[in-house]
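call fold(seq) -> tokens
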Amino acid sequence: MSEWVIPFHYDYMIKAMIACGLIGLTCGLLSAFLTLKGWSLMGDALSHAVVPGVAVAYIIGWPLALGSFFAGLFAAAAMAVVKAKSQIREDAVIGIVFTTFFAFGLLLIGLYPAQVDLKSIIHGNILGIADRDLWQVLGISVFCLFIICVKWRDLMLFCFDVVQAKTIGLRVGLLHGLLLGLVSAMAVAALQAVGAILVVAMLITPGATAYLLTDRFPRMMLLSTLLGAVTASVGAYASYFINGSPGGCIVTLQTLVFLLCWIFAPKHGMLAQGRQKNASAERKEEQA
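ret:
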């Protein structure tokens, strides 16, 4: 039994689990809105678009969070401008912008290899998180949680029905920008834990899993928050025993939970849907 508490004897593991739990909790809550809005590709785009911001911050000595955040906002603004000024579909705009930003980030990393650690950006480095980075994660998470708790009803209506939100007088442009800002901020925080490639999973998978378990949005928010926090902390904890990447463990665990819910969810799971189809077919046969 004592071997199961060994990770708690190391400060770096305790910091990693705390940081992953905070990131998972906030990303899980935010993922409920992204799932409702259908912004999975947007989350992927912003998670990659922050890479040049990280590279620039490394090079000029800025805080990584500051460079990443501005890069995410700039990418979001670029998507909005290109979409407004052209007839290109939104998914194509997102793909063009985020690949361009990601490529530019890799170019900067290649030009300044001594200043920028490519591996930590792509794969994350949660086990090497410093105290100042932990406080940064805490600050970003608390800020995002506060904004969501204050504006969750407006954000819910914006994600569910923009036309209805406009009708009742909500400033949908401001809400659009607010949601993009929150995604950018959490992409910055999650970058430290799982890296640029896997950030999208933490921003989407908990919400998608909760979507299978309930039809009520407040309950979906609660479930996605719990799923994000628990799977992130447990994934970081498990990485010690299998000597694997914490980011890989976290996302793999979240995917396994999603697959279980996809199969066994009581109403929207694959087995439940099969039973409903069979029951419907039997009723039609009886009526015939």
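Residues 2-287 form a domain with the ABC transporter involved in vitamin B12 uptake, BtuC fold (CATH 1.10.3470.10).
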